[in-house]
Design goal:
single chain; 414 residues; mainly beta; four-stranded mixed beta sheet; 29% strand
């Protein structure tokens, strides 16, 4: 019986009562891409446990396993003990041939403890199903060449946030991460201090629109923009937000491209003649959608501003609290318009490589697809750019005044 055994590294952050990780082993289960990682943890308080992977013999640890691919004793709130067990579903993160240069690093940090959920976080449950990913030309007409050919994708149940992440939620994350010493502020912008994103820009606070400002140890939000979607966040910054709120039992993540499209289409419009071009509509037409989305010259109350985001779930600022008629069939708001949204998936033309048998989740910083997928239109796009199948890609360090994100939530037991 042949199994792949990985080399490993042990790592714990220095400091008062630093946790100690020892006896790390990693073994791939024969005939699968499941990897069992075991370790011992000595700590005087609950710790945050992080797993990092090297594919070059330990020179760099650039592969960050996606939250959806990890289960077991990983994340915040991990107590001391022996034979702690993490299961890594490698197929979600790594599609190359295995080799003897792989290494596993287990990191333990104290002070993580129980991490609160982002303020006012609401989700909708998306049932498992099969989606026709891409543009059905017969049902949706013409579009861009990167939207075809279509393919069938099977997706497990997941939860997705009803609204795009707001300035209020992201400011709370920055405050908590600053207090924990996980980020540094340079000229009003936030950078990661450690991990595979060390030195990477998370949030740009120098480029308009400047909506979040650090004053002392407090992160303040510009008046009237508390419930607007956060912008000028990089893909790294979106992933960092998700990782901070991930616990031992629950993972937060960016949606894959397929998850995003499944959520946008609604439960009964996943294929065939019902494969509608636009979300948040009763008949799938652009005419029905224009009164429910914030796009270029849409006539909302912020149209006179230079940067025209609106309160999440309120396409024209006129319905507060938000109106149910503005949501799609999954109860999700702003799946078209307001801001574009980062996805976890790497961006490449359709069809995806044949190795991606279930879904396209790319996470390694060294993956050949350096760009990440962006979905949904924004306040700066003409209405025709708000089609569900529309897609684009950008570098993970990019940011913009019309680019934000929403999150998915999964249980490690799913």
């Amino acid at each position: 019986m042949k199994q792949l055994c990985f080399g490993f590294f042990v790592f714990s952050l220095l400091g008062l009562a630093a946790p100690q990780v020892s006896t790390v082993t990693a073994l791939q289960r024969e005939g699968t891409k499941l990897v069992d990682i075991r370790y011992d943890l000595a700590t005087s308080e609950d710790a945050r446990v992080i797993v990092r992977i090297s594919t070059d013999g330990g020179t760099t640890f650039s592969l960050l396993p996606s939250a959806a691919a990890l289960a077991g004793d990983v994340g915040p709130g991990i107590a001391a003990g022996t034979l702690k067990h993490v299961i890594w579903d490698m197929r979600l993160d790594y599609d190359w041939q295995f080799n003897g240069d792989m290494r596993v690093k287990v990191i333990a940090e104290t002070g993580a403890g129980a991490v609160p959920e982002p303020a006012s976080f609401e989700v909708s449950t998306i049932a498992a199903g099969t989606l026709t990913l891409g543009r059905e030309q017969s049902a949706e007409g013409d579009g861009d060449s990167d939207e075809v050919p279509t393919r069938q994708v099977t997706i497990n149940q997941f939860e997705i946030s009803k609204f795009e992440v707001t300035n209020e939620q992201y400011a709370e994350f920055l405050r908590a991460a600053w207090t924990a010493g996980e980020i540094q502020m340079i000229n009003a912008s936030a950078f990661a201090l450690s991990g595979p994103f060390a030195g990477k820009l998370l949030y740009n606070g120098q480029t308009d629109p400047i909506r979040i400002t650090k004053i002392g140890d407090t992160f303040t939000i510009s008046e009237n923009y508390v419930k607007h979607p956060v912008v000028n966040v990089s893909w790294y910054g979106a992933i960092a937000f998700c990782q901070y709120y991930t616990t031992g039992d629950t993972v937060y993540d960016l949606p894959t491209e397929a998850e995003w499209e499944m959520a946008a289409r609604g439960p009964t419009k996943l294929a065939g003649a019902d494969h509608e071009a636009y979300p948040m509509t009763t008949d799938g037409t652009v005419d029905d959608m224009v009164s429910k989305a914030n796009f270029l010259n849409s006539g909302d109350i912020f149209e006179s501003q230079l940067y025209k985001t609106t309160q999440v779930g309120s396409y024209n600022g006129g319905q507060i609290p938000v109106g149910f008629d503005q949501a799609n069939d999954n109860g999700l708001y702003d799946m078209a318009g307001n801001v574009r949204e980062w996805c976890r998936s790497g961006y490449s033309p359709y069809p995806y490589p044949s190795a991606d048998s279930v879904d396209h989740q790319v996470n390694s910083l060294t993956h050949p697809w350096g760009t990440r997928t962006i979905r949904g239109g924004s306040w700066s796009d003409p209405v025709l750019e708000l089609r569900i199948a529309g897609r684009r890609g950008d570098a993970p360090g990019s940011f913009g005044p019309d680019l934000g994100f929403r999150v998915v939530r999964r249980s490690i037991n799913q």
